[in-house]
Amino acid sequence: MEKILILLLVALSVAYAAPDPRGIIINLEEGELCLNSAQCKSKCCHHSSLLGLARCAPLASENSECSPKTLYGVYYKCPCERGLTCEADKTITGTITNTNFGICHDIGRSKQ
């Protein structure tokens, strides 16, 4: 019994010492299935239809369609990359139904 316990402890310590940098639940790559944007490296869990499977996707680039950040954590259109802002009509109905899409713009460039 002691030998089995020691063997189990050694196996657990080896598994813990060499973790995989890619996660099973978090730190997911683009294209992997997700339930929430917090799981993805890109911070965008995207689905194309209400019944479709959500997958990690890249953030929207400049002049691309986007969604403002949402509480749900799953998007029809991904939010903008860092430094860009999503110019969208932020109505209550659009927020609830997740249909308030816009276009990513560089706010620094638009002020000049």
TrEMBL record:
<dbReference type="GO" id="GO:0005576">
    <property type="term" value="C:extracellular region"/>
</dbReference>
<dbReference type="GO" id="GO:0009617">
    <property type="term" value="P:response to bacterium"/>
</dbReference>
<feature type="signal peptide">
    <location>
        <begin position="1"/>
        <end position="17"/>
    </location>
</feature>
<dbReference type="GO" id="GO:0035473">
    <property type="term" value="F:lipase binding"/>
</dbReference>
<feature type="domain" description="Colipase N-terminal">
    <location>
        <begin position="21"/>
        <end position="60"/>
    </location>
</feature>
<keyword id="KW-0442">Lipid degradation</keyword>
<comment type="subunit">
    <text>Forms a 1:1 stoichiometric complex with pancreatic lipase.</text>
</comment>
<dbReference type="InterPro" id="IPR047576">
    <property type="entry name" value="CLPS_chr"/>
</dbReference>
<dbReference type="GO" id="GO:0016042">
    <property type="term" value="P:lipid catabolic process"/>
</dbReference>
<dbReference type="InterPro" id="IPR017913">
    <property type="entry name" value="Colipase_N"/>
</dbReference>
<dbReference type="GO" id="GO:0032094">
    <property type="term" value="P:response to food"/>
</dbReference>
<protein>
    <recommendedName>
        <fullName>Colipase</fullName>
    </recommendedName>
</protein>
<keyword id="KW-0732">Signal</keyword>
<comment type="function">
    <text>Colipase is a cofactor of pancreatic lipase. It allows the lipase to anchor itself to the lipid-water interface. Without colipase the enzyme is washed off by bile salts, which have an inhibitory effect on the lipase.</text>
</comment>
<feature type="domain" description="Colipase C-terminal">
    <location>
        <begin position="63"/>
        <end position="106"/>
    </location>
</feature>
<dbReference type="GO" id="GO:0001523">
    <property type="term" value="P:retinoid metabolic process"/>
</dbReference>
<dbReference type="Pfam" id="PF01114">
    <property type="entry name" value="Colipase"/>
</dbReference>
<dbReference type="GO" id="GO:0007586">
    <property type="term" value="P:digestion"/>
</dbReference>
<keyword id="KW-0443">Lipid metabolism</keyword>
<dbReference type="Pfam" id="PF02740">
    <property type="entry name" value="Colipase_C"/>
</dbReference>
<dbReference type="InterPro" id="IPR001981">
    <property type="entry name" value="Colipase"/>
</dbReference>
<keyword id="KW-0964">Secreted</keyword>
<keyword id="KW-0222">Digestion</keyword>
<comment type="function">
    <text>Enterostatin has a biological activity as a satiety signal.</text>
</comment>
<dbReference type="GO" id="GO:0008047">
    <property type="term" value="F:enzyme activator activity"/>
</dbReference>
<keyword id="KW-1015">Disulfide bond</keyword>
<dbReference type="InterPro" id="IPR017914">
    <property type="entry name" value="Colipase_C"/>
</dbReference>
<dbReference type="InterPro" id="IPR017915">
    <property type="entry name" value="Colipase_CS"/>
</dbReference>
